Amino acid sequence: MIPELGNFALMVALAVALVQGMLPIVGAARGNEAWMGLARPAARAVFVLVLLAAGCLVASFVRDDFSVLYVATNSTRALPLRYKVAAFWGGHEGSMLLWLLILSFWMFAVSVFSRHLPQSMVARILGVMGLIAVGFLLFILLTSNPFDRLIPAAEDGRDLNPLLQDPGMVAHPPMLYMGYVGFSVAFAFAIAALLGGNLDATWARWSRPWTTVAWSFLTLGICLGSAWAYWTLGWGGWWFWDPVENASFMPWLAGTALMHSLAVTEKRGGFKVWTVLLAIFAFSLSLLGTFLVRSGVLTSVHAFANDPRRGVFILLFLSLVIGGSLALYAWRAPKVGLGERFELISRETMLLTNNVLFLAAAGAVLLGTLYPLFLDSLGLDKLSVGPPYFNFVFPLLMAPALFLMGIGPLARWKQANLPEIAVRLKWAFGVSLVTALLLPLALGHWSWLAAAGLWLALWIYAATAVNLWSRLRPLAGTGLLARFRSLPLGYLGMLTAHVGVATFIVGVTLVKTYEAEKDVQMDIGDTVTVGPYTLQFGGVSNGSRENYLFSKGAFQVTRNGQIVETMYAEKRQFVSQAEPSTVAAIDLVRDLYISLGEAAGSNTSAWIVRVYYKPFVHWVWGGCLVMALGGVLALSDRRYRLTRRAGQEALDGTLAGTVPA
Amino acid sequence: MRYLRYLIPLGAFLVLTGFLFRGLWMDPHQVPSPLIDKPAPQFRLTQVADPAKSLSRDQMLGQVWLLNVWASWCVSCREEHPVLVEFAKSGIVPIYGLDYKDTRDEALKWLDRLGNPYQASLFDADGRVGIDYGVYGVPETYVIDKSGTIRYKQIGPITPEILNEKIVPLVKKLNA
Amino acid sequence: MLSRLLGALLLLALLTAGAREAAPLGEDPALEHRMMVLAEELRCLVCQNQTLADSHADLAADLRQEILELMKKGQSDEQIKRYLVARYGDFVLYRPPLKAATWLLWFGPGVLLVGGLAALYLVLLRRRRLAAAEPLSAEQEQRALELLSGDEGQLS
Question: Is C15 on the interface with A (CB under 8 A)?
Answer without folding.
Answer: no
